[in-house]
Amino acid sequence: MNRAVSSKCFQCPTFRAGRCSGTAKRLLATDAAPLTRKDKKEGDISSVFSTFSGRKIPPLPERFRELKRNLTTGFEEQIQKSWDELVEVLKVRTEEVASKRESIIPQLNYSDIRAGSVSPETVAAIRRTGVAVVRGVVPKDEAEGLLSDVRRYFAAHQFPGFPSDADKKIIYESYWSPSQVKARSHPNMLSTQSWMNQLYSADAGQKSNADPTS
């Protein structure tokens, strides 16, 4: 039977390492009075992203407050210190974003990736921002063909989306149309993803830590 973990559990090294053999079990947010399928009203993507619909998101149930309290008890000082450090970093980064605006996002051409000629400065910028715009990945004629195909596909099939008015719909809840699959599996797309993934690696002496609160 599930029950909330007491604050003493979080002081126990065995529990914090995930090796607790006691009867206490973390009470997950999904453990308390889960909704059944019949209780849920089917919606569209606007029910998840309130910026699309303007809907006000209701407060979370009280069980989430209790869950957070159980998770943070005994670690108040560490959490506050971590938060204060994050705020200071965000101040600097926010000012940088405000001054550079869209230019803060690195841009490069797929041809440079293929030729192995991406500059070290661009690589450093991508690693720092974690995002980039890569142009020319799919040749223009192929991209336009995929766009035409997906438009015909949506015209022939009914998909939920937002707005709900079919003539004004700009977001479709479709993820596996033929054109989408072709675009994601395009050789140039795959090689771009492979190149991006190789920009990140763990330090030689880096060790994983099973305790996220330390």
TrEMBL record:
InterPro entries: Gig2-like, IPNS-like_sf
Domain of life: Eukaryota
Organism of this sequence: Aspergillus oryzae (strain 3.042)
Protein name as catalogued: Uncharacterized protein
Gene3D superfamilies hit by this protein: B-lactam Antibiotic, Isopenicillin N Synthase, Chain (2.60.120.330)
